[in-house]
Amino acid sequence: MIKRWVKGILTILAMSIIILPSNINSHAFGLDIVDHWAKEHIIYLADKGFIKGYPDGSFKPEESITRAEFLTMVNNTFGYREEAHISFKDVEEGSWYYKEIRKAAKAGYIRGYGDGTMKPENPISRQEVASIVAALCGLEKEVSNSAYDFNDWQEIGGWAINYVGILKDKGYVLGYEDNTFRPKSHIKRGEAAKLIAEIDRKMDKPEEEMTKVEEFISLVEELPHANAIIQIIAQDKVKLDRARQIYNQLKDEEKDGIPSKIVSKFLEVESKIESLKTPLISPTKTTVEQAQAWARSKGAHQRFIDIAPVYWEYGELTGINPEILYAQAAKETNYGRYTGAVLPEMNNWAGIKAWPNLGFMLAFLQK
What we know:
0% strand; 3 domains; mainly alpha; globular
């Protein structure tokens, strides 16, 4: 009886070795990733020793990942070893994640919650992951409005919408088939593995340094054609300015090597954008109501819409085009949502919150 039982167990083990791919079996991952879409990314991280499965041999790619587990994955991938002092109320010394959270705090990509907690055992949301990844990759100071392309952008927290947009621009997040981002949904273990694996691959792959000519051609190719430009877009203007700077630095023989169609497009786009520029001191062609309608179409906060008349009143008194000021305020304050560098307490006259003494300022200007 015992021999028959032992023989049966050995048969099962032999079959499992045949059934399971060797690279999966070596990491003690079971059948729960064999047919999973993220298998390649999970194995990639496991091969580098960045992740491990559960004691029962599973990885559970469809289950949510906790904040502590995600931080551990990040620490392993980025090689963070130094630790900082922490005082989170819900992180006890001796817990398995105590050192991992200290590493994350030292690396500077986590801050915890306003109530002094870290909530390490809570599932981490997709927008929280976006915030962390932006900090990890040094992208916090970049600005993007791409998150507004998602059908559910209104569900994204004001503190996270810029980060989600940045990661969308970089190709790290794509959203779902219904064009939603689902910011408050818990990110799954398989999704987290894919994200971290892609970041690690980009870190491992050194970027090839382009020549000035190659960079110029690349920038111009990214620009829209002149006849398609109906308004000045900040990103296009940045690319154009950079292209002009490079072109001015090129030697004549280098310029001769650039395809004529590229140079023609560059000059046409530059001319078109110059023609669209509005002088700072100029009459407005837009009414307050039109400006407010534009702000609403961009999903602006109500306070940004309400403050529009102040810009037009200021413009009448100074001659400064209020459209320019209003558009700049939109850029700096993210249409009143404060998701960039400008905080509510940092507003000036070009911000979106009227000063208490604004009436005095306008009265002074009228003198």
